[in-house]
Design goal:
Among the domains are: 3-116, no CATH class; 171-233. Strands 3-4-5-6 form a 4-stranded mixed β-sheet, with no helix packed on it. It has helices spanning 56-71, 104-111, 129-137, 145-167, 171-191, 195-223, 235-248, 265-277; strands at 3-6, 13-16, 20-27, 31-38, 43-51, 77-82, 254-255, 261-262. Helices cover 48% and strands 15% of the residues. It is an alpha+beta fold and 278 residues long. Helix 1 links the parallel strand 5 (43-51) and strand 6 (77-82). The chain starts with a strand and ends with a helix. InterPro entries: Endo/exonu/phosph_ase_sf. This is Craniofacial development protein 2-like.
Length: 278
């Protein structure tokens, strides 16, 4: 039968024909995700309908959410709607000037929907890590060895990504939340130093320490460091280390065929093009 659906804030309306079976997957203020089956096509697919906020800051939540949905997407899928932003300056005629920072996030999102899989070393310390790997690696696939290996890798990486979100969540958001909770519990314990309040405080402090350790391991891995002895939470040092590595990868100057050092960026680009055209 024909049906209609409106999202939680009434900004997105969906109308379905009788030939379509649909199931709601997620409903937020900026997008609605549904799984549909089209009887005439005999095809399952995922569809995401978007009505983005006018504020670039508020749209960041939408882009992050689309990343999250894309990471586990296995069905054919379609994303459409009103994104309230452009991809390039030449798409806009008249009105106020649009600056790159206003549309760079959207451009990045459209070209990088599927995040590259990154194995996080701290996963291996969790009790259920090997179970997740084992259960998904032993899945039954039919085909040549290379196809089976590819499918196993795909299934394991997708499962690990989903498992990580369920077990650890966003570690940086969790840290911010836990730090706030600890501050509140500390104030409560100062006002009423009861045994119960002390136990609650120690529990959230322990959880905070766990996430601080995870954060440090994350930055150590990102910085490519094999050893780190600081004792304290020293993320600023790790950030600086990463930035230092990036600077080393930048091309600052080259020596031309006439053995003259070139430092100007435009001349560097021209020299590089000329070199590879020879």
């Amino acid at each position: 039968m024909e049906t209609a659906y409106a999202n939680i804030n009434g900004q997105i309306w969906l109308f379905f024909d009788a030939v379509v079976e649909w199931e709601l997957v997620e409903d937020t203020e900026q997008q609605v995700t549904v799984r549909v089956f089209h009887h005439d096509l005999g095809q399952h697919m995922m569809m995401i309908f978007v009505y983005a906020k006018c504020s670039a800051i508020e749209r960041l939540d939408l882009w992050d959410h689309l990343y999250y949905l894309a990471s586990d997407m296995e069905l054919p899928w379609l994303v459409g709607g009103d994104f309230n932003v452009i991809l390039h300056e030449d798409e806009k005629i008249g009105g106020l000037t649009v600056h790159p920072p206003e549309y760079e996030d959207f451009a990045f999102c459209t070209t990088n929907f599927v995040k590259p899989f990154i194995f996080l070393n701290f996963w291996t310390k969790h009790a259920t890590f090997m179970d997740v790997v084992r259960q998904n690696w032993e899945a039954d696939f039919i085909g040549d060895p290379f196809f089976i290996f590819k499918q196993n890798i795909k299934r394991v990486t997708a499962s690990l990504s989903k498992w990580s979100r369920e077990i650890f969540g966003d570690i940086f958001k969790q840290l911010a939340i836990l730090e706030d909770i600890v501050r509140v519990k500390e104030m409560l314990f100062e006002e009423e130093p009861t045994t119960e309040n002390r136990i609650v405080l120690q529990k959230v402090q322990s959880e905070l320490k766990k996430y601080l350790s995870i954060e440090e391991q994350y930055w150590k891995q990102k910085a490519g460091m094999t050893c780190f002895t600081g004792g304290d939470r020293n993320t600023s040092f790790l950030h600086n280390h990463i930035n230092g590595k990036r600077k080393k990868l930048q091309l600052k100057r080259i020596k031309s065929g006439s053995r003259v050092w070139i430092k100007d960026q435009e001349q560097l680009a021209t020299a590089a093009v000329n070199f590879y055209q020879k």
